[in-house]
Amino acid sequence: MSETPLAAKFDFTNEAVAVTGGASGIGKAVCETFAGQGANVAVADIDADAAETVADAIEDEYDTRAIAIETDVSSYDAAEEMIETTVDEFGSIDVLVNNAGLSTRTSSFLESTPEDWDRSVGVTYFGTMNCTHAALPHMIDQEGGCVINYASDSYKGNDPSLAVYGGAKAANVAFTMNVAKEVGEHNIRLNVVSPGTTETPATAEWIDKYRDKILESYALERLGTPQDIADTVAFLASDAADWITAEVVSVNGGYIRG
Ligand code: NAD
After folding, report:
1. pLDDT top residue among 206 and 46
2. Which of helix, strand or coil describes residue 202?
3. Using one digit for the tens of pLDDT, what is the confidence trace for 70-87?
4. Which of 45, 153, 154 most suits a substitution to test ligand 1, by most atoms within 8 Å of the C-beta?
5. What pLDDT score was predicted for residue 2?
6. 81: domain CATH number?
7. One of 62, 150, 165, 218 is an active-site residue; which one?
8. What is the extent of the structural domain holding 88?
9. Which of 11, 29, 30, 62 is within CB 3.0–4.6 Å of 226 for a Cys-Cys bond?
10. Closest among 20, 11, 56, 3 to 148, alpha carbons compared
11. What is the ipTM of this complex?
């Protein structure tokens, strides 16, 4: 039997967590959840005002620090600057949540353009690589850390409008598994959370249009909430998941490929 009580394994006091795309939807819930467990949080987003609003609200509600960092994760320099700012402000980077992701928003692959691919893959896959590459040297120096990357049901196929985005999510899975091997000896874990359809600003319009049809694909017959995903992200980053790395965890109410 472990000597550490389970609740203590979810204590992130004095740990520094950076969340990309932290100003909205799932990322916002992730920021709030870590703050609620005592972490200092960097809300890293391309939308500076929204990030500031989230960081201010966290500092009002929780006894932790929260900072807003304007960043575009598709740029390596910006990603590196974001990580450096986090380390300068908090003294470490213990958890990196590569939450930012973007779909092409075209109804089929053939309709999409190379510009769409650059945008979607730039944020969804290059964003993950950029931030991870910038954070890992710090985690190696600290001899520990945790990275959570994102997939989605789209990487399992069946939706032409998500071909490019789904490809980038599949790339995140392969990337995570391979890098986990490289840095495991430094007590660094990398995992993937794969959300099903979750109600956020990104999906609101689409869900409004197709709610009943979407629900048919889910065994639990409800859509996800940002908190459903944030809880799993916090679990994967916690000491309760100490021996989990290079893994993909689907949080999707039992997605049945239609
Ligand atoms: P959202 O649109 O509500 O939030 C995304 C945030 O990312 C926004 O605050 C946006 O400003 C920020 N962002 C966009 N481009 C950025 C960039 N270049 N650099 C930094 N920040 C940037 O999205 P969401 O629905 O909360 O999705 C969060 C993650 O979950 C994404 O990776 C998404 O692919 C994944 N996901 C979502 C769903 C869903 O149904 N909502 C399903 C599967 C996977």
Report:
1. 46
2. coil
3. 999 999 999 999 999 999
4. 45
5. 65
6. 3.40.50.720
7. 165
8. 6-248
9. 29
10. 20
11. 0.99
